[in-house]
Design goal:
With 89 residues, the chain is an alpha+beta fold. It has 3 helices and 4 strands; from the N terminus they run αβαββαβ. It is 39% helix and 25% strand. It has a 4-stranded antiparallel beta sheet.
Length: 89
């Protein structure tokens, strides 16, 4: 059985463990003032400028991102003219 194993699964496992040990979390934001595709584009650009953030989805009224903290995201959106707050579950 050990003869069929390769080094590749170990590399994948190590990468997964490394990702799980980071402080990155999924954040869903409710965003006010978005009305059209241009708004979605501006919000996406504002979020992408925040270091350490990966934008998963932006749609009218909300965004899902991967980041360590929502505060810089909310500040970037406010600067772009879109008030936002973390979605309440």
């Amino acid at each position: 059985m050990s003869e069929t194993l390769t080094a590749e699964p170990s590399i994948t496992s190590a990468a997964s463990i490394k990702y799980m040990n980071t402080n990155v979390s999924n954040i869903t934001l409710t965003i006010e003032g978005m009305h059209c595709g241009a708004c979605v584009r501006r919000v996406t650009q504002a979020l992408e400028r925040v270091p350490g953030t990966t934008v998963e989805e932006v749609r009218i009224g909300a965004a899902r991102v991967h980041s360590e903290d929502s505060a810089p995201l909310i500040a970037a959106l406010a600067k772009a003219g879109y008030p936002a707050h973390p979605e309440q579950l």
